[in-house]
Amino acid sequence: MRREARRMAALFLLPACGLYALLFLYPVISSLVLSLYDWDGFSQQRRFVGLGNFRRLLGDDPMFWTALKHNLFLLSVPTVIILAAALFFAGALTSGVRGSKFFRITYFFPNVISMVAITLLWFFIYNPNFGLLNGLLGKLTGSKVSIVWLDPNHIMAALVAPIVWCSLGFYLVLFLAGMESIPQTYYDAARVDGANAWQQFRSITVPLMWDIITVAVVFLVIGGLRIFELIYVMALGYPNEQSQVISTYLYEQAFNNANMGYGLAIAVVLFVLVFATTAAAMRLMGREQTEF
Amino acid sequence: MGKGKAIPWGRWLVRGALYLVLVGYAGAVILPMVWLLYTSLKNNEEIFRSAWALPGRLHWGNFAYAWGRARIGDYFANSLLVTAISVALILLVSAMAAYVLARFPFRGNRAIFYAFLAGLMVPTQLALVPLFFLVNAMGLLDTYTGLILVYVAFSLPFTIFVLAGFFRTLPHELAEAALIDGCTHAQAFWRVMLPIAKPGLVTAAIFNFLGIWNEYLFALVLISSERLRTLPLGLANLLMVTHYESNWGALFAGLVMVMIPTLAAYSLLQGQLTKGITAGALKG
Predict the structure, then answer these.
(1) Taking CB atoms and an 8 Å cutoff, what residues of chain B touch A226?
(2) CB–CB of B26 and A106 under 8 A?
(3) A120 and A206 in contact (C-beta within 8 Å)?
């Protein structure tokens, strides 16, 4: 490269690389290192404990396992529902129904609302006294309904609906893009061979959209692992064992209990789970790909 | 024999059921919004009397309270300021880096690109705690400078990925022609390549704007002053306060005020948004 080009390249890369190294890479690497220490965040003293934080977390902390269990529930049940519903709606909207644009635009809208606002909206919907849901059930049954949806027995199941509601539209648009890119002739040929709608879906749509579906699963699983606002705001800042998830437990340990090292160990476990999910999906994608 | 007639009947039934499901889910999206809107005009007593009844008198005071006393107006201005500056900086910094990474072959190019890309796999929570202490050490805790710089740093992986992909698709000859005409490489970037990269920049701007406008966790950790709160922080706080004060009408009004600009922006930009997702999906 000429000298001028080299200088420009360096100059143009400097702000991005500088910011990224300082405010992204450095904190991430610090987390990995500091998770090996016992540290309250305020005193100068840090005691090296090796894998002690992890041993305590995985071996001797029921709250962590409770939180992880909640994450597993929130990354599996909504994922299944969202995949099934988004594929169904995408199929329906590409089958030539009237108003498909209206449906697409409506379904996608919740995706642009902030998670805090969505949480608040569902907090209202679930309110036992003036909530939309009890009001609706009251109208249908003709008597007053006062189910406490966010009590310990219902809360996990109650969280499924807002998760589906706020993200379905994104996956619908994703799947629509995939379906619209499949040549119509494939379906015509299948119909000539006598394949019904379900057979066409199973042996044309799904295999040709395998990559997109895998990406969707990865997004949904990672989203379920990282979930924070919905739980934190719904519990008014203090989730307990009924709704604690990894992210809120991390926040509580680090910022409320001043257990920085321990909080970081939780963050590292979260990172490992996210990383493993992505890596597994990438392998899966490479193997089961179908060529056009 | 009767089969010839049975098929259209079956088809009508399937069609009808399909529409029922489609309209049903559209209702599940729209109904809560409509309910939210008219409940925001009720007073506390009306809210508790019946979940469904329309307001007897329109209590616009809820909105005045939420905008002024509950400071939603201030938080709105704060969010606008933080988001606008962040997005402008993100585009500038990312476009420069992405252009070089996409078009200048030099040793280490791939390594830098993949270092940015790796950031897409890291959950932000992993950086949260050290980031708090780092920003504190820089003297930027509880300032917009600190918050904005963090937003920029964490948007780089996604934005550079999108823009580098975009710059690779632009015709090489244009920059070459500018160079032959006596432009420097930097001039070719600013005057020729950046202007024609506008569609890519717009897509990146919309997604970053949405992400930062709605961001909660970093703001929660990095901002502590009430007067510096962004909209998500302010709204969450309003819920936590209202829970003890019980001015529910004002909280409904606050939520409506947060939703309306989102709805307005969405109706303008939804085409761009879905196009962005579609392009991403097909590229894989």
Answers:
(1) 123-125
(2) yes
(3) no
Q: Which two tokens stand for residue B133?
A: 């202490």
CA distance B163 to B159: 6
CATH 1.10.3720.10 fits B71-246, yes or no: yes
Contact: B232, A116; criterion CB under 8 Å:
yes
The answer, yes or no, to whether residue B3 has pLDDT greater than 50, is no
With b meaning 16 or more CB within 10 Å and e meaning fewer, what string describes A146-173? eebbbeeeebeebbebbbbbbbbbbbbb
Q: Which own/partner contact pairs does A155-162 have at CB distance under 8 Å and 24+ positions apart?
A: A155/A234, A155/A242, A155/A243, A156/A70, A156/A73, A156/A74, A156/A242, A156/A243, A158/A126, A159/A74, A159/A230, A159/A231, A159/A234, A159/A243, A160/A74, A160/A77, A160/A78, A160/A81, A161/A122, A162/A118, A162/A119, A162/A121, A162/A122, A162/A230
Cβ–Cβ below 8 Å for B36 and A278: no
Torsional class of A143: left (φ above 0), alpha (ψ -120 to 50), beta (otherwise): beta
Q: Which residues pair with A47 in a beta bridge?
A: A38
Tell if the CB–CB gap between B277 and A250 is shorter than 8 Å.
no
- Tens-place pLDDT, residues A262-271: 999 999 999 9
- DSSP state letter for B227: G
Instruction: Kindly determine whether residue B50 and residue A135, on different chains, have CB atoms separated by under 8 Å.
Output: yes
Q: How far is A290 from chain B (nearest CA, A)?
A: 13
Domain of A217, CATH number, reads 1.10.3720.10
Nearest alpha carbon to residue A250 among A63, A14, A27:
A63
pLDDT, tens digit, for every residue of A111-136? Answer: 999 999 999 999 999 999 899 999 99
CB nearest to B52's CB, from A121, A123, A135: A135
Q: State the smallest CA–CA distance between residue A152 and chain B in angstroms.
A: 19
| Structural domain harbouring A76 | 52-284
Q: Quote the CA–CA distance of B130 and A41 in Å, as a whole number.
A: 9
Structure tokens at A266: 């939780």
The reply to whether A42 falls in a domain is no
Ramachandran quadrant class, A48 (left: phi over 0; alpha: psi -120 to 50; beta: rest): beta
Task: Give the C-alpha separation, B278 to B273, whole Å.
Answer: 9
- The share of chain A scoring above pLDDT 70, in percent, equals 97
Number of domains in chain A: 1
Domain chopping of chain B, boundaries: 71-246
Are A174 and B235 in contact (CB < 8 Å)? Answer: no
Residues in chain A: 292
Nearest CB neighbour to B29, from listed A24, A109, A124: A109
Chain B residues close to A123, C-beta within 8 Å: 239
Q: How confident is the model at residue B283 (pLDDT cuts 50, 70, 90)?
A: low
Q: Assess if residue A46 is contained within a domain.
A: no
Q: Where are the alpha helices (DSSP H) in B104-124?
A: 109-118
